[in-house]
Amino acid sequence: MYETGTALQVRAFHVMPGMPPPEGVRHSHDYRFDVVVRREDLDERGMVVDLDVLDQALRDAAARVDGADLEKVVDAEAVTVEVFARWLHDHLAAALGRLPGTALAVRIWESPEAFGGYTAPL
Question: 22: cis peptide before it, omega within 30°?
């Protein structure tokens, strides 16, 4: 299995409804986005995916949440890292288009030790 990926970091804010502080009040995380496209065989250019296209798609999605309240950007009452990872996956998938035989894995780290992720075909 071949892989191509990229990563970046953003700061965003959220609240976990019904939770005690600090989770239950507006707080920030320095989120790290790790994204990887995988496929069994390389395409006719010898690539998994064009890394420049993947990197720009990630930067565009990150610009929407950098410094923002996640509840205002992500359509969910509680923006957990799992929900956030699905949102990021959906935005990257729309930007990349259909790439037969590939899967996109998204992992969002909310701390150096804790992450949530989502993986699905493109």
Answer: yes
pLDDT tens-digit series, residues 41-50? 999 999 999 9
DSSP string, 19-81: PPTTTTS-EEEEEEEEEEEEESS--TTS-SS-HHHHHHHHHHHHHHHTTSBHHHHSSSSS--H
**d(Cα 82, Cα 115) in Å, to the nearest integer?**
8
What number of CA atoms fall less than 13 Å from residue 85's CA on the CB side? 22
Residues with Cβ within 8 Å of residue 106, at least 6 apart in sequence: 33, 34, 35, 85, 86, 88, 89, 92, 117, 118, 119
The CB density around residue 106, as the number of other CB atoms within 10 Å, is 27
pLDDT of amino acid 22: 87
Measured CA to CA, the distance from residue 117 to residue 122 in angstroms comes to 16
